[in-house]
C-alpha cells in the first residue's frame, strides 16, 4: 500500500496528464497510464526504490522506467515556486523573516576533476561524501518554500548561493518588493553566509564578543531553529533524497520536485 494520501497521487497524475496533452501524446501509446506512472514516481521518492524493481513491479522495461521517472521529476520540478513568488507570499502572510540554509544531498561516487585545481568537484570535504549542494529557503514555521539549482558538493554554501543566482535573486526580489534590509522581511542564515550582503543576517563571528553581540547571536539562532526543520522535512519524508543514484546534475530538479510534493501534502498532513 502506498503511504501517501489519494489526493497526492491524483495531483501528480493530473500534472502528468497535462504534460501529455501538451506533448500531444496519442491515447494508448504509453505502457502506463498517468495514474500508474504517478505511483511509480511516488514510490521512488518515498523510499528510493531501485528502478529495476519498479520496472518489474509495473511490468515495463528498465529504460522505460527511467524515462517515466525523469518525466515525473521534470513535471514536478516545473511546478516549483520561484523565489519572487515565495517572497510575495511571505510578505502577504506577514512573516518577519525567512531562513536560508544549504544542505548536501548525497550521491554515488562520481569523480569529476576541477580543471583548475584537480580536486574532485562533487566531493564535500565538510561531509566527507559525494553529493550536491542545494540552497533552501524556509518560512518561520520551518516549511520549505524555495529550492535552488544544484552546485557540486565541494562548493561552499555562500559560493553556491551566488553561483546559482539564488543570492542575487534574493536581493533583487527583496528590492523589487520594497523589502530592504531590516525592514519588512529579512533572511536569516548561519555563519557560513557571512558577507552575503544586505538583507541576509548572520551571527557575529569571533571570541570575547560584547554582550550585545552575544544576545544578537542567540536571537538569530532561536529564530533560525524552526527554519532548520525545512531541510529535515524534505529528507525524512522523501527517502530518495538520502542518496541520489541518478546523474548528480539532476539533484536540483529532484529537490524541487520533492518541494512540490511536500507542498501538495501540506494541507493533508
Layout of helices and strands:
Elements: H1 6-23, H2 34-47, H3 51-58, H4 62-78, H5 83-92, E1 97-106, E2 123-124, E3 129-138, E4 144-152, H6 157-163, H7 166-176, E5 186-188, E6 200-201, H8 211-224, H9 229-237, H10 251-265
Parallel strand pairs: 1-5, 5-6
Antiparallel strand pairs: 1-3, 2-3, 3-4
Helix pairs in contact: 1-2, 1-4, 2-4, 3-4, 4-10
Number of domains as seen in the coordinates: 2
Main sheet summary: 6 strands, mixed
Are there runs of 5+ residues with pLDDT below 50, and where?
none
Average residue-wise pLDDT: 87
* Helix proportion: 40-55%
Residue fraction in strands: 5-15%
**What Rg, in angstroms, do the CA atoms define?**
20 Å
Count of beta strands = 6
Secondary structure class reads alpha/beta
**End-to-end separation:** 17 Å
Shape, principal axes of CA atoms: globular
Query: Order of SSEs, N→C?
Result: HHHHHEEEEHHEEHHH
Count of alpha and pi helical runs = 10
Amino acid at each position: 500500500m502506498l503511504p501517501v494520501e489519494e489526493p497526492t497521487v491524483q495531483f501528480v497524475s493530473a500534472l502528468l496528464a497535462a504534460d501529455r496533452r501538451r506533448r500531444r501524446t496519442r491515447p494508448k501509446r504509453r505502457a502506463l497510464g498517468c495514474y500508474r506512472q504517478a505511483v511509480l514516481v511516488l514510490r521512488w521518492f518515498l523510499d528510493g526504490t531501485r528502478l529495476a524493481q519498479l520496472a518489474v513491479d509495473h511490468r515495463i522495461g528498465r529504460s522505460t522506467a527511467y524515462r517515466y521517472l525523469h518525466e515525473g521529476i521534470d513535471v514536478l520540478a516545473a511546478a516549483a515556486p520561484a523565489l519572487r513568488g515565495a517572497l510575495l507570499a511571505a510578505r502577504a502572510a506577514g512573516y518577519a523573516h525567512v531562513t536560508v540554509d544549504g544542505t548536501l544531498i548525497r550521491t554515488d561516487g562520481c569523480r569529476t576533476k576541477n580543471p583548475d585545481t584537480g580536486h574532485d568537484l562533487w566531493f564535500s570535504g565538510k561531509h566527507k561524501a559525494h553529493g550536491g549542494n542545494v540552497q533552501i529557503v524556509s518560512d518561520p514555521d520551518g516549511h520549505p518554500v524555495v529550492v535552488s539549482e544544484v552546485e557540486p558538493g565541494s562548493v561552499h554554501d555562500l559560493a553556491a548561493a551566488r553561483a546559482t543566482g539564488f543570492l542575487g535573486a534574493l536581493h533583487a526580489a527583496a528590492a523589487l518588493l520594497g523589502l530592504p534590509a531590516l525592514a519588512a522581511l529579512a533572511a536569516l542564515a548561519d555563519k557560513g553566509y557571512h558577507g552575503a550582503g544586505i538583507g541576509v543576517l548572520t551571527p557575529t563571528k569571533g571570541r570575547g564578543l560584547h554582550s550585545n553581540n552575544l544576545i544578537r547571536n542567540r536571537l538569530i539562532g532561536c529564530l533560525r531553529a524552526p527554519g532548520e526543520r525545512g531541510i529535515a522535512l524534505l529528507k525524512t519524508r522523501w527517502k530518495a533524497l538520502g542518496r541520489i543514484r541518478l546523474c548528480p546534475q539532476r539533484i536540483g530538479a529532484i529537490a524541487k520536485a520533492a518541494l512540490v510534493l511536500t507542498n501538495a501534502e501540506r494541507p493533508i498532513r
